[in-house]
Amino acid sequence: MPTTDTRRLNPFALLGILLGVILLAVVVFRSFTRDVVEVRAAAVTYQNLVKSVPTNGKVEPISDFRAHAEGPGVISKIYVKVGQKIKSGDLLIQINDADAVAKLATAKAALSTAQASMHDLQQGGSQDERIALQGDQSRAKIQQQQAESDLAALKQLQQKGAASASEVAAAEQRLQTANSSLQNVEMRSTQRYSVPDRRRTEAQLSDAQAGVMAAEKGYANANIRSPLSGTVYSIPVSQYDFVQAGEDLVDVADLNKIQIRAYFDEPEIGNLAVGQPVTIVWEGKQDRVWHGHVTRVPTTVIAYGTRSVGECIIAVDDAQEDLLPNTNVTVTVTTQQRFNVLSIPREALHTEPSGRDFVYRIVNNKLVVTQVKVGVVNLMRVEITSGLTDKDTVALSAANSNRDLSNGLPVKVVD
Protein backbone atom coordinates (compact mmCIF):
# COMPACT_ATOMS: atom_id res chain seq x y z
CA MET A 1 0.00 0.00 0.00
CA PRO A 2 1.53 3.23 -1.08
CA THR A 3 2.12 5.96 1.44
CA THR A 4 1.26 9.60 0.88
CA ASP A 5 2.99 12.41 2.75
CA THR A 6 0.49 14.98 4.03
CA ARG A 7 1.98 18.40 4.28
CA ARG A 8 0.40 20.75 6.80
CA LEU A 9 0.63 24.59 6.72
CA ASN A 10 2.52 26.31 9.49
CA PRO A 11 0.08 27.96 12.02
CA PHE A 12 2.06 31.17 11.93
CA ALA A 13 1.74 31.31 8.17
CA LEU A 14 -2.00 30.85 8.45
CA LEU A 15 -2.21 33.69 10.97
CA GLY A 16 -0.21 35.98 8.71
CA ILE A 17 -2.41 35.21 5.74
CA LEU A 18 -5.50 35.92 7.81
CA LEU A 19 -4.17 39.27 9.03
CA GLY A 20 -3.20 40.23 5.49
CA VAL A 21 -6.70 39.52 4.24
CA ILE A 22 -8.22 41.62 7.05
CA LEU A 23 -5.83 44.49 6.37
CA LEU A 24 -6.60 44.37 2.66
CA ALA A 25 -10.31 44.48 3.43
CA VAL A 26 -9.85 47.49 5.68
CA VAL A 27 -7.78 49.28 3.05
CA VAL A 28 -10.35 48.60 0.38
CA PHE A 29 -13.16 49.75 2.65
CA ARG A 30 -11.36 52.95 3.62
CA SER A 31 -10.54 53.68 -0.01
CA PHE A 32 -14.24 53.89 -0.70
CA THR A 33 -15.32 55.76 2.45
CA ARG A 34 -12.44 57.91 3.76
CA ASP A 35 -13.08 60.96 1.60
CA VAL A 36 -16.81 61.31 2.33
CA VAL A 37 -17.01 63.82 5.19
CA GLU A 38 -20.16 64.77 7.04
CA VAL A 39 -20.57 68.54 7.14
CA ARG A 40 -23.00 71.10 8.46
CA ALA A 41 -24.31 73.44 5.77
CA ALA A 42 -26.51 76.49 5.27
CA ALA A 43 -28.40 77.97 2.35
CA VAL A 44 -27.54 81.40 0.99
CA THR A 45 -30.58 83.57 1.78
CA TYR A 46 -31.83 87.14 1.70
CA GLN A 47 -32.07 88.75 5.14
CA ASN A 48 -31.93 92.10 6.91
CA LEU A 49 -28.53 92.70 8.48
CA VAL A 50 -27.79 95.05 11.36
CA LYS A 51 -24.34 95.85 12.72
CA SER A 52 -24.35 97.34 16.21
CA VAL A 53 -21.93 98.34 18.94
CA PRO A 54 -22.94 97.97 22.63
CA THR A 55 -21.33 99.79 25.54
CA ASN A 56 -22.08 101.32 28.93
CA GLY A 57 -23.17 104.88 29.71
CA LYS A 58 -24.58 107.16 32.39
CA VAL A 59 -27.82 109.16 32.25
CA GLU A 60 -27.64 112.92 32.82
CA PRO A 61 -30.15 115.79 32.41
CA ILE A 62 -29.76 118.19 29.49
CA SER A 63 -31.27 121.09 31.44
CA ASP A 64 -30.83 121.00 35.20
CA PHE A 65 -30.32 123.22 38.26
CA ARG A 66 -27.98 122.18 41.04
CA ALA A 67 -28.22 124.52 44.03
CA HIS A 68 -25.13 124.95 46.20
CA ALA A 69 -24.65 126.75 49.49
CA GLU A 70 -23.03 130.15 48.94
CA GLY A 71 -21.71 130.14 52.48
CA PRO A 72 -21.87 128.14 55.70
CA GLY A 73 -25.24 127.97 57.38
CA VAL A 74 -28.03 125.82 58.79
CA ILE A 75 -30.93 124.42 56.73
CA SER A 76 -33.96 126.21 58.18
CA LYS A 77 -36.63 124.59 56.03
CA ILE A 78 -37.03 122.33 53.00
CA TYR A 79 -40.14 123.15 50.97
CA VAL A 80 -40.00 120.27 48.43
CA LYS A 81 -39.44 116.52 48.32
CA VAL A 82 -37.81 114.13 45.87
CA GLY A 83 -40.02 113.43 42.87
CA GLN A 84 -42.07 116.61 43.29
CA LYS A 85 -42.83 118.66 40.17
CA ILE A 86 -42.12 122.37 40.54
CA LYS A 87 -42.38 125.54 38.48
CA SER A 88 -39.81 128.21 37.80
CA GLY A 89 -39.48 130.53 40.80
CA ASP A 90 -40.75 128.04 43.39
CA LEU A 91 -39.02 128.21 46.78
CA LEU A 92 -36.97 125.08 47.43
CA ILE A 93 -34.83 125.54 50.55
CA GLN A 94 -34.26 128.24 53.16
CA ILE A 95 -30.91 128.62 54.92
CA ASN A 96 -30.26 130.50 58.14
CA ASP A 97 -27.09 132.23 56.97
CA ALA A 98 -25.83 134.62 59.67
CA ASP A 99 -22.68 135.24 57.67
CA ALA A 100 -24.72 136.48 54.68
CA VAL A 101 -26.72 138.81 56.94
CA ALA A 102 -23.53 140.27 58.42
CA LYS A 103 -21.96 140.73 54.98
CA LEU A 104 -25.06 142.50 53.72
CA ALA A 105 -25.10 144.88 56.71
CA THR A 106 -21.40 145.69 56.23
CA ALA A 107 -21.90 146.30 52.52
CA LYS A 108 -24.86 148.59 53.12
CA ALA A 109 -22.87 150.59 55.70
CA ALA A 110 -20.02 151.02 53.21
CA LEU A 111 -22.52 152.14 50.58
CA SER A 112 -24.04 154.71 52.94
CA THR A 113 -20.58 156.15 53.66
CA ALA A 114 -19.76 156.33 49.96
CA GLN A 115 -23.10 157.98 49.17
CA ALA A 116 -22.54 160.56 51.93
CA SER A 117 -19.08 161.33 50.51
CA MET A 118 -20.57 161.79 47.05
CA HIS A 119 -23.31 164.04 48.44
CA ASP A 120 -20.73 166.16 50.25
CA LEU A 121 -18.70 166.40 47.06
CA GLN A 122 -21.72 167.51 45.03
CA GLN A 123 -22.76 170.06 47.68
CA GLY A 124 -19.26 171.39 48.22
CA GLY A 125 -18.69 169.79 51.62
CA SER A 126 -20.52 168.48 54.65
CA GLN A 127 -23.22 170.52 56.34
CA ASP A 128 -20.85 171.65 59.12
CA GLU A 129 -18.24 172.61 56.56
CA ARG A 130 -20.78 174.54 54.51
CA ILE A 131 -22.04 176.43 57.61
CA ALA A 132 -18.48 177.28 58.63
CA LEU A 133 -17.72 178.35 55.09
CA GLN A 134 -20.77 180.61 54.98
CA GLY A 135 -19.60 182.24 58.23
CA ASP A 136 -16.13 182.78 56.80
CA GLN A 137 -17.64 184.27 53.65
CA SER A 138 -19.83 186.68 55.65
CA ARG A 139 -16.87 187.83 57.74
CA ALA A 140 -14.75 188.30 54.62
CA LYS A 141 -17.45 190.41 52.98
CA ILE A 142 -17.83 192.57 56.10
CA GLN A 143 -14.06 193.03 56.26
CA GLN A 144 -14.01 193.97 52.58
CA GLN A 145 -16.83 196.46 53.01
CA GLN A 146 -15.12 197.97 56.05
CA ALA A 147 -11.83 198.26 54.16
CA GLU A 148 -13.57 199.96 51.23
CA SER A 149 -15.30 202.40 53.59
CA ASP A 150 -12.07 203.22 55.43
CA LEU A 151 -10.21 203.80 52.16
CA ALA A 152 -12.91 206.13 50.86
CA ALA A 153 -12.90 208.16 54.11
CA LEU A 154 -9.11 208.49 54.13
CA LYS A 155 -9.07 209.66 50.52
CA GLN A 156 -11.57 212.42 51.42
CA LEU A 157 -9.46 213.43 54.41
CA GLN A 158 -6.33 213.43 52.25
CA GLN A 159 -7.99 215.90 49.90
CA LYS A 160 -8.60 218.16 52.87
CA GLY A 161 -5.05 217.66 54.11
CA ALA A 162 -6.19 215.72 57.17
CA ALA A 163 -4.67 212.35 56.13
CA SER A 164 -1.23 211.50 54.86
CA ALA A 165 -0.40 209.49 51.77
CA SER A 166 0.98 206.66 53.90
CA GLU A 167 -2.33 206.31 55.68
CA VAL A 168 -4.15 206.07 52.37
CA ALA A 169 -1.63 203.46 51.14
CA ALA A 170 -2.16 201.41 54.29
CA ALA A 171 -5.92 201.52 53.76
CA GLU A 172 -5.49 200.35 50.19
CA GLN A 173 -3.35 197.46 51.41
CA ARG A 174 -6.04 196.43 53.92
CA LEU A 175 -8.63 196.47 51.10
CA GLN A 176 -6.50 194.24 48.93
CA THR A 177 -6.10 191.81 51.81
CA ALA A 178 -9.87 191.79 52.40
CA ASN A 179 -10.52 191.19 48.69
CA SER A 180 -8.04 188.32 48.65
CA SER A 181 -9.60 186.72 51.73
CA LEU A 182 -13.08 186.95 50.20
CA GLN A 183 -11.85 185.44 46.94
CA ASN A 184 -10.24 182.53 48.78
CA VAL A 185 -13.45 181.84 50.69
CA GLU A 186 -15.49 181.88 47.48
CA MET A 187 -13.05 179.50 45.77
CA ARG A 188 -13.32 177.15 48.75
CA SER A 189 -17.09 177.05 48.29
CA THR A 190 -17.04 176.45 44.53
CA GLN A 191 -13.79 174.55 43.96
CA ARG A 192 -13.35 172.62 47.17
CA TYR A 193 -12.74 169.24 45.43
CA SER A 194 -10.28 168.56 42.63
CA VAL A 195 -10.82 166.20 39.67
CA PRO A 196 -8.83 163.36 41.36
CA ASP A 197 -10.96 163.82 44.50
CA ARG A 198 -14.12 163.47 42.42
CA ARG A 199 -12.84 160.35 40.63
CA ARG A 200 -11.80 158.72 43.89
CA THR A 201 -15.22 159.35 45.45
CA GLU A 202 -17.03 158.01 42.36
CA ALA A 203 -14.87 154.85 42.43
CA GLN A 204 -15.61 154.31 46.11
CA LEU A 205 -19.33 154.64 45.40
CA SER A 206 -19.21 152.14 42.53
CA ASP A 207 -17.26 149.67 44.64
CA ALA A 208 -19.74 150.00 47.50
CA GLN A 209 -22.70 149.46 45.14
CA ALA A 210 -21.09 146.30 43.74
CA GLY A 211 -20.46 145.07 47.27
CA VAL A 212 -24.12 145.50 48.16
CA MET A 213 -25.22 143.66 45.03
CA ALA A 214 -22.94 140.74 45.84
CA ALA A 215 -24.07 140.66 49.46
CA GLU A 216 -27.73 140.80 48.42
CA LYS A 217 -27.16 137.90 46.04
CA GLY A 218 -25.58 135.90 48.82
CA TYR A 219 -28.45 136.78 51.13
CA ALA A 220 -30.99 135.90 48.45
CA ASN A 221 -29.32 132.51 48.02
CA ALA A 222 -30.34 131.75 51.55
CA ASN A 223 -33.82 131.45 50.03
CA ILE A 224 -33.14 129.12 47.11
CA ARG A 225 -35.62 129.19 44.23
CA SER A 226 -35.64 127.12 41.06
CA PRO A 227 -34.86 129.00 37.83
CA LEU A 228 -36.62 126.30 35.77
CA SER A 229 -39.64 124.04 35.80
CA GLY A 230 -39.02 120.34 36.29
CA THR A 231 -38.76 117.56 38.85
CA VAL A 232 -36.78 117.48 42.10
CA TYR A 233 -34.63 114.37 41.75
CA SER A 234 -32.15 114.74 44.62
CA ILE A 235 -32.05 116.41 48.07
CA PRO A 236 -28.82 115.32 49.79
CA VAL A 237 -29.46 117.43 52.94
CA SER A 238 -32.01 117.44 55.76
CA GLN A 239 -33.62 120.13 57.85
CA TYR A 240 -31.33 121.60 60.53
CA ASP A 241 -28.20 120.26 58.81
CA PHE A 242 -25.17 122.52 58.92
CA VAL A 243 -23.73 122.94 55.42
CA GLN A 244 -20.44 124.31 54.24
CA ALA A 245 -19.95 126.73 51.34
CA GLY A 246 -20.28 124.94 48.01
CA GLU A 247 -22.19 121.94 49.38
CA ASP A 248 -24.89 120.47 47.11
CA LEU A 249 -28.39 121.23 48.41
CA VAL A 250 -31.00 120.24 45.82
CA ASP A 251 -31.07 119.06 42.18
CA VAL A 252 -33.86 119.89 39.74
CA ALA A 253 -34.16 118.81 36.10
CA ASP A 254 -36.61 118.37 33.26
CA LEU A 255 -36.60 114.56 33.13
CA ASN A 256 -38.23 114.59 29.70
CA LYS A 257 -35.00 116.05 28.30
CA ILE A 258 -32.11 113.76 29.16
CA GLN A 259 -28.99 112.45 27.47
CA ILE A 260 -26.49 109.65 27.98
CA ARG A 261 -22.74 110.00 28.20
CA ALA A 262 -21.47 106.74 26.73
CA TYR A 263 -17.92 105.38 26.42
CA PHE A 264 -16.83 103.37 23.37
CA ASP A 265 -13.58 101.43 23.10
CA GLU A 266 -11.01 102.97 20.78
CA PRO A 267 -11.38 100.44 17.87
CA GLU A 268 -15.13 101.19 17.67
CA ILE A 269 -14.92 104.99 17.53
CA GLY A 270 -14.41 105.14 13.77
CA ASN A 271 -17.80 103.46 13.16
CA LEU A 272 -19.77 106.13 15.04
CA ALA A 273 -21.59 108.99 13.31
CA VAL A 274 -24.05 111.71 14.34
CA GLY A 275 -27.66 110.63 13.88
CA GLN A 276 -27.13 106.88 14.24
CA PRO A 277 -30.07 105.18 16.04
CA VAL A 278 -29.54 103.90 19.58
CA THR A 279 -31.44 101.55 21.89
CA ILE A 280 -31.10 101.94 25.67
CA VAL A 281 -31.81 99.41 28.40
CA TRP A 282 -31.63 99.78 32.17
CA GLU A 283 -31.56 96.91 34.64
CA GLY A 284 -33.89 98.89 36.90
CA LYS A 285 -36.68 98.46 34.30
CA GLN A 286 -35.91 95.37 32.26
CA ASP A 287 -39.28 95.44 30.47
CA ARG A 288 -38.66 98.93 29.05
CA VAL A 289 -36.51 99.92 26.07
CA TRP A 290 -35.71 103.53 25.26
CA HIS A 291 -34.62 104.93 21.91
CA GLY A 292 -32.30 107.77 20.99
CA HIS A 293 -29.68 108.95 18.53
CA VAL A 294 -26.03 110.00 18.55
CA THR A 295 -25.66 113.78 18.88
CA ARG A 296 -21.90 114.03 19.42
CA VAL A 297 -19.18 111.60 18.42
CA PRO A 298 -15.88 111.30 20.31
CA THR A 299 -13.30 113.97 19.53
CA THR A 300 -10.48 112.44 21.56
CA VAL A 301 -9.50 109.28 23.39
CA ILE A 302 -9.32 109.29 27.19
CA ALA A 303 -8.40 106.77 29.87
CA TYR A 304 -11.47 105.28 31.55
CA GLY A 305 -10.25 102.83 34.17
CA THR A 306 -8.20 100.29 32.25
CA ARG A 307 -9.86 101.15 28.92
CA SER A 308 -8.98 103.68 26.23
CA VAL A 309 -12.35 105.10 25.22
CA GLY A 310 -14.05 107.91 23.35
CA GLU A 311 -16.85 109.88 24.98
CA CYS A 312 -20.09 110.01 23.00
CA ILE A 313 -23.31 111.96 23.73
CA ILE A 314 -26.63 110.25 23.01
CA ALA A 315 -29.98 112.07 23.15
CA VAL A 316 -32.94 110.04 24.49
CA ASP A 317 -35.93 110.57 22.21
CA ASP A 318 -38.73 108.91 24.19
CA ALA A 319 -37.95 109.68 27.84
CA GLN A 320 -41.08 110.01 29.97
CA GLU A 321 -39.52 110.84 33.33
CA ASP A 322 -38.85 107.11 33.77
CA LEU A 323 -35.08 107.12 33.18
CA LEU A 324 -33.45 108.57 36.27
CA PRO A 325 -30.33 110.79 36.26
CA ASN A 326 -26.99 109.18 37.20
CA THR A 327 -28.23 105.65 36.44
CA ASN A 328 -25.93 103.27 34.56
CA VAL A 329 -27.41 101.97 31.32
CA THR A 330 -26.41 99.83 28.34
CA VAL A 331 -26.62 101.50 24.94
CA THR A 332 -26.45 99.81 21.54
CA VAL A 333 -25.64 101.97 18.53
CA THR A 334 -26.68 100.71 15.11
CA THR A 335 -23.68 101.60 12.95
CA GLN A 336 -24.83 99.84 9.74
CA GLN A 337 -28.17 98.49 8.56
CA ARG A 338 -28.96 96.71 5.26
CA PHE A 339 -32.34 95.37 4.14
CA ASN A 340 -33.01 92.22 2.09
CA VAL A 341 -29.39 91.45 1.21
CA LEU A 342 -27.80 88.13 0.30
CA SER A 343 -26.09 86.68 3.35
CA ILE A 344 -24.51 83.60 4.89
CA PRO A 345 -23.67 82.58 8.47
CA ARG A 346 -20.42 84.12 9.59
CA GLU A 347 -19.09 80.62 10.33
CA ALA A 348 -19.08 79.84 6.59
CA LEU A 349 -16.69 82.68 5.70
CA HIS A 350 -12.95 81.98 5.44
CA THR A 351 -10.06 84.32 4.71
CA GLU A 352 -6.84 83.49 2.90
CA PRO A 353 -3.49 84.75 4.22
CA SER A 354 -3.52 87.22 1.32
CA GLY A 355 -6.73 88.70 2.72
CA ARG A 356 -9.16 87.37 0.09
CA ASP A 357 -12.47 85.96 1.37
CA PHE A 358 -13.86 82.61 0.23
CA VAL A 359 -16.44 79.96 1.09
CA TYR A 360 -16.83 76.24 0.46
CA ARG A 361 -19.78 75.89 -1.89
CA ILE A 362 -21.38 72.41 -2.06
CA VAL A 363 -21.78 71.26 -5.67
CA ASN A 364 -22.76 67.64 -6.41
CA ASN A 365 -21.77 66.58 -2.89
CA LYS A 366 -18.29 68.04 -3.23
CA LEU A 367 -16.72 71.21 -1.84
CA VAL A 368 -15.82 73.93 -4.30
CA VAL A 369 -13.70 76.89 -3.14
CA THR A 370 -15.51 80.08 -4.20
CA GLN A 371 -14.15 83.57 -3.73
CA VAL A 372 -16.68 86.13 -2.49
CA LYS A 373 -16.91 89.81 -1.67
CA VAL A 374 -18.51 90.84 1.61
CA GLY A 375 -20.36 93.91 2.87
CA VAL A 376 -21.84 94.31 6.33
CA VAL A 377 -20.51 91.84 8.90
CA ASN A 378 -22.16 91.38 12.28
CA LEU A 379 -21.78 88.77 14.99
CA MET A 380 -24.00 86.20 13.25
CA ARG A 381 -24.09 86.82 9.50
CA VAL A 382 -22.13 88.25 6.57
CA GLU A 383 -23.48 90.18 3.61
CA ILE A 384 -22.36 88.73 0.26
CA THR A 385 -22.09 91.34 -2.49
CA SER A 386 -20.72 88.99 -5.18
CA GLY A 387 -19.72 85.36 -5.72
CA LEU A 388 -22.92 83.58 -4.60
CA THR A 389 -26.61 83.38 -5.43
CA ASP A 390 -29.64 82.50 -3.34
CA LYS A 391 -29.59 79.00 -4.93
CA ASP A 392 -26.21 78.12 -3.43
CA THR A 393 -25.44 76.11 -0.31
CA VAL A 394 -22.24 76.62 1.66
CA ALA A 395 -20.48 74.39 4.16
CA LEU A 396 -20.12 75.58 7.72
CA SER A 397 -17.85 72.98 9.30
CA ALA A 398 -17.20 69.28 9.45
CA ALA A 399 -19.44 67.31 11.79
CA ASN A 400 -16.24 65.71 13.05
CA SER A 401 -14.27 68.63 14.41
CA ASN A 402 -10.99 66.81 13.61
CA ARG A 403 -11.55 67.01 9.86
CA ASP A 404 -10.52 70.06 7.82
CA LEU A 405 -12.43 71.24 4.77
CA SER A 406 -10.66 71.38 1.43
CA ASN A 407 -11.42 71.95 -2.23
CA GLY A 408 -12.92 68.87 -3.94
CA LEU A 409 -13.60 67.03 -0.70
CA PRO A 410 -16.62 64.67 -1.03
CA VAL A 411 -19.16 65.56 1.64
CA LYS A 412 -22.50 64.57 3.03
CA VAL A 413 -24.72 67.26 4.53
CA VAL A 414 -26.07 66.49 7.98
CA ASP A 415 -28.15 68.48 10.43
From TrEMBL:
It comes from the Bacteria. The chain crosses the membrane at residues 12-32. Residues 179-201 are annotated as: Disordered. Coiled coil: none annotated. Gene3D superfamilies: 2.40.30.170, 2.40.420.20, 2.40.50.100. GO terms for cellular component: cell envelope; membrane. InterPro entries: MdtA-like_BSH, RND_pump_MFP, UPF0194_transport. Residues 73-248 form the Multidrug resistance protein MdtA-like barrel-sandwich hybrid domain. GO terms for molecular function: transmembrane transporter activity. Residues 179-193 have a biased composition (Polar residues). Belongs to the membrane fusion protein (MFP) (TC 8.A.1) family. PANTHER family: EFFLUX SYSTEM COMPONENT YKNX-RELATED (PTHR32347). This is Multidrug resistance protein MdtA-like barrel-sandwich hybrid domain-containing protein.
